Amino acid sequence: MQNRIATPVGITLDRFIKKKQNDFAFATGELSQLLRDIALAGKIIHREVNRAGLLSISGAYGTENVQGEEQQKLDVIANIRFIRALKNGGEVCAIVSEEDEEILDVQNPNGRYIVAMDPLDGSSNIDVNVSIGTIFSIFRRVSPVGGPVSQEDVLQKGSEQVAAGYLLYGSSTMMVYTTGRGVNGFTYDPSLGEFFLSHANIRIPKDGNIYSINEGSYESFEPHVIKYIKFCKKQNYTARYIGSLVADFHRNLLKGGIYIYPANKKSVNGKLRLNYECNALAFICEQAGGKATDGKQRILDIQPKSLHQRVPFYVGSTNMVDAATAD
Ligand code: AHM
Ligand code: MG
């Protein structure tokens, strides 16, 4: 704790990671390197996101990119870039991604970590120039190093995460992450190519007045959700819904609020994926003093049964999550 207070705002992400690594007597530096690999991939996606509008213009003229490849959708590009960065880094033995049906064995049996990720979340916002994000969770493998990756490696509870974070490609690009000792946010300066600590030791207010939910499905929500929305309106709370989970979550984290993607008639388990979206944000939220549940159970305690499993998601200020999930 003392360290965090002493950390000057403005140090680079690299130096911050190094400083934190020194807090662990027996740290090998692999997790630190993995976080740096993710930051590097984030810089690459930042560049692609910022060129996205131009890509579609050049696409309209039938041009191909420098490698002579066909123009690809940005979420596919992000997936490729992340996988490449993690593969080259060498710390990871397997990746699971929202973009891929199966486990990706990266041919690095000595890697000690597993990464679960949503390389570009909020894809419906890409074409309309609205904020999007990357979400990641890092787990230590449970199978023996050197052998094949197992189902147990990739289906671990969120409480087993050793680190988690997100990149937000907004008016600025930010990386926010936790290693289980608080949450810190870094803002990218593209002119220097560096992330700088801008939000040290983020704490989410216990209460807030922002609620984020797609009210278009109101009629098909469960009674307690309808009741809570009515309550929010009575309280004159502010409704904010970008439809981009990272951006909605980030705003609520800083200002106090709740994000809900509940079950509805069409999607009985909601829409969001436990492994790629909910676990990481739940870990960050709890580390910042907030709460995350599926309406009944703590997100981090859910034992995943399949890679692409969906769960209802209530995340944000503790008092708001409690109120939204009360019968
Ligand atoms: P995606 O992974 O296909 O991008 O879907 C996830 C996104 C979230 O970012 C966002 O909060 C939610 O889907 C919006 O869904 P809806 O349009 O149903 O409200
Ligand atoms: Mg997603």
Count the E strands.
Answer: 13
In the CATH scheme, the class of the largest domain would be Alpha Beta
Bound molecules: 2,5-anhydro-1,6-di-O-phosphono-D-mannitol, magnesium ion
Main sheet?
A: 8 strands, mixed
* Low-confidence sequence ranges: 1-5, 58-70
pLDDT averaged over residues: 90
CATH fold name of the largest domain, please?
Fructose-1,6-Bisphosphatase, Chain A, domain 1
Helix tally equals 9
What fraction of residues sit in β-strands?
A: 15-25%
What would you say about this model in short?
The protein has 327 residues and is of the alpha+beta class. It has helices at 2-6, 13-21, 30-60, 74-89, 151-154, 223-234, 245-255, 274-287, 318-325; strands spanning 92-97, 104-105, 113-121, 132-140, 161-169, 173-178, 183-189, 194-199, 210-212, 238-239, 258-261, 291-293, 313-316. It binds 2,5-anhydro-1,6-di-O-phosphono-D-mannitol and magnesium ion (MG).
Describe this entry's structure for a reader.
The protein is an alpha+beta fold and 327 residues long. It folds into two domains: 8-199, Fructose-1,6-Bisphosphatase, Chain A, domain 1 (2-Layer Sandwich), CATH 3.30.540.10; 210-324, 3-Layer(aba) Sandwich (D-Maltodextrin-Binding Protein, domain 2), CATH 3.40.190. Helix content is 34%, strand content 21%. It has helices at 2-6, 13-21, 30-60, 74-89, 151-154, 223-234, 245-255, 274-287, 318-325; strands at residues 92-97, 104-105, 113-121, 132-140, 161-169, 173-178, 183-189, 194-199, 210-212, 238-239, 258-261, 291-293, 313-316. The strands form two sheets. Strands 2-1-3-4-5-6-7-8 form an eight-stranded mixed β-sheet, with helices on both faces. It has a five-stranded mixed β-sheet with strand order 10-9-11-13-12, sandwiched between helices. A hairpin with a 6-residue loop joins β1 (92-97) and β2 (104-105). The two termini are 37 Å apart. Mean pLDDT is 90; it is low at 1-5 and 58-70. 2,5-anhydro-1,6-di-O-phosphono-D-mannitol binds next to β3 and α7.
